[in-house]
Amino acid sequence: MMNHKSILKRAAALMLALLLLSPVISMAARNETVTIPKEEYERLKRYELVEEVRQYVDAFFYVEPDEQKMMDGAIQGLLSGLGDIYSFYYPEEAWAKMQEEDSGKYAGIGVQMLGDYNTGAVTITRVFRNTPAEAAGLKKGDVFYLVEDLEVTATTMNDAVDIMRGVPGEKVHVEVLRNGEILPFDLIKANIIVNRAEYKMIDDKVGYIILYEFAGGSKEAFVEAYEALKNAGMQHLIFDLRDNPGGWVGDAEKIGDIFLDQKMLYYTQDRFDRKKEYFTKAGADPMPMTILVNENSASASEILAAAMKDHKRAELIGVKTFGKGVIQFVIPLSDNKSGFQFTAAQYFSPLGHKVHKEGIVPDMIVEMPEEQKHVLFDTGDLADPQLAAAYEHVLKNLQ
Question: Torsions phi, psi of 63, nearest 5?
Fold first, then answer.
């Protein structure tokens, strides 16, 4: 014999079954009825447990809950479930800071960092000159340990960035790991102006450009440097992509357009095996080129370097690259105040080489001596062993 609860469950199941037989569903609440398609109803049902939790919190949480923070956490949680460190949510404040960063002007401490998806480590790859980070003594190669009370990993890197950004004059405490020792630093945030590129004529024939990242204005910064070097008589370019973590693939495409004439720059492939190819535009500058890469050259840097290698348009010198061969879309949400980033596809070199987790092997391997890995060399300084090796190789080709 069924008890009262069993009868109620059976009745509820029967009612739901009858509803699902209809092409549309009517939902009644507070004497109002909304009719939605069956597919929409089934989609909403998937989030029923989330709403159930929200209702409990709304009714019983011991203080008034912050609805917006709950929604921000829910969206971040949805993306965290992908298990991909490159997919994450930008709530309102973080979205504004991200756009600020892309402009090249922001308040912070003045470092560039790269998160490793294998080890979880977040490493400083560049310390900007005349910044709080440089003044305090942070160095390239330092690994973040703490930012305030936040333990820094590849998955919390964006939260750490948010804490280190803000208003000039604010204090921030960071701790880094250097040579097995944890070192504390107290910094005062300041206005940071990021230069995307630097350049120099090494001699009367060989020019040098270092591009620090593919972000707002990077293509324009490269073109300005390139034209200045050509006007100075450059006959061979050394293009430095070491420690360049990537950025907007569109900027890599624009620079590829300068040097490759109607060639495939890369292709992408998603989980449905849909393939999309990108070809450069007609016309190309024939300037001979050598490209420097290292273990921190990632993403858009690898796209460009791999294409130049595959088409034998440039020789690559240095060590194997980072291996971030996935492309993210950055999507603004409908409130026009927030957005999210997620991984949409993998990219491959023109000859079909997979980059993700594999990297690009240079034509000529030149290791950086361990004792010089943390040195900040001046632009075009031949005391830099990898640059010196590239320069000597170029001179042989020019003779």
Answer: -130, 165
Residue 223 lies in a domain: yes
Are residues 279 and 357 both part of a single domain?
yes
CATH number of the domain that residue 183 is part of: 2.30.42.10
What's 370's DSSP letter?
G
Rounded-to-5 percentages of helix, strand, coil across the chain: 35, 30, 40
Q: How far apart are CA 164 and CA 261, in angstroms?
A: 42
Is the dihedral angle over the CA atoms 213, 219, 224, 228 positive or is it negative?
Answer: positive
By the 8 A CB rule, do 293 and 242 touch? yes
Distances (CA, A) of 333 to 89, 91, 106, 281, 287: 10, 10, 23, 32, 43
Could you tell me if residue 48 is inside a domain? Answer: yes
Range of the domain at 218: 197-398
My answer on whether 384 and 259 are in the same domain is: yes
232 and 381 share a domain?
A: yes
Q: How far is CA 51 from the centre of its chain?
A: 32
Condensed to tens digits (0 to 9), the pLDDT of residues 88-136 reads 999 988 888 777 766 666 789 999 888 887 788 999 988 888 899 999 9
What does pTM read for this prediction?
Answer: 0.74
DSSP string computed for 244-272: ---B-HHHHHHHHHHH-SS-EEEEEE-TT
The Cα–Cα gap between 50 and 83 comes to: 20
Same domain, 215 and 364: yes
**Cα–Cα distance measured from residue 53 to residue 154, given in angstroms and rounded to the nearest whole number:** 29
Residue 99 lies in a domain: no
Residue 206 clears pLDDT 90, i.e. is over it: yes
Give the H or E element holding residue 155: none
Q: How far apart are CA 230 and CA 6, in angstroms?
A: 84
pLDDT tens track for 127-153:
888 899 999 999 988 999 999 999 999
Whether the Cβ atoms of residue 215 and residue 187 lie closer than 8 Å to each other: no
**Number of neighbours of residue 158 by Cβ within 10 angstroms:** 18
How many domains, in total, are found in the chain? Answer: 3
85 DSSP 8-state letter: T
Structure tokens at 1: 């014999």
Q: Are residues 284 and 354 in the same domain?
A: yes
Q: Are residues 166 and 292 in the same domain?
A: no
378 and 282 within one domain: yes
C-alpha to C-alpha distance for 290 and 313, rounded to whole angstroms:
9
207 and 334 together in one domain:
yes
What length does the chain have? 399
